[in-house]
Amino acid sequence: MNEVECSGARPERQSERISQAPAVQALLLQVISLFVVMLLNAACVVFFHVTVNVFAAACLQGACAAALSKRRGLAPWWLVIQLLFAPALVFASALQLPPWIFLLAFSFFLLLYWTTFRTQVPFYPSGPAVWAKVAELVPADRGIAFVDIGSGLGGLLLHLARRFAGSRFVGVELAPLPWLISVLRARFGGSAARFYRHDYKRLNLAEYDVVFAYLSPAAMPALWAKARAEMRKGSMLISYEFAIPDVTPSMSISPHSHAAKLHVFHM
Q1: What pTM was computed for the model?
Q2: Which domains does the chain have, with CATH numbers?
């Protein structure tokens, strides 16, 4: 695959990228909330001669962190994480679980989400209804090249590869665990789909007739800029659920009545 060099914009320094990462901001807000709760507890001791219950303090810290995160403009899922983080720690500590369980859980989520703190794209699996609707959009009269950006467990590409034997299906995924699972599913299932552990920014989108993405709102402006710069005339960009800001899609369709929409952009 060809690597694409970015040009035009001034490269951000590493320290700037790290400080702007939502995970770093969330951690900082948790620390601020912890100090707020500590000050509140100290005030209760001085003026009322009572100490705030540990679990109540954790809940208060979570509420404070969630409120600060909302004000900061973090994504909705961060509000839930911020709200539950401190109470979950207190609850887990009360269970007196062996340390290896926490290490195992940390390792699992690290392999599953990997660079989510940087890319702002958490693990979003799609489903059979989405696969079937995407299959209706794929040209059936000729072989095409199709890439799934953030291919996850590989379900979409494995489904399409079974239906369109004459086409090339490629998935790119950064997180090690989903990528490994998709590779094993393709290998042991005899699928022609191929999966690579890459950042999509390393792809040359001009090589593909159809680009599918199920990312996050934060990732859409950069994806659109890359698509506009590289995708060929007549090719198609499909985004599930997340629209591109200030861009009207060629059409938007729902896999079923209660599902999010597929936004289709003809280049």
Answers
A1: 0.63
A2: 14-96 (no CATH), 128-266 (3.40.50.150)
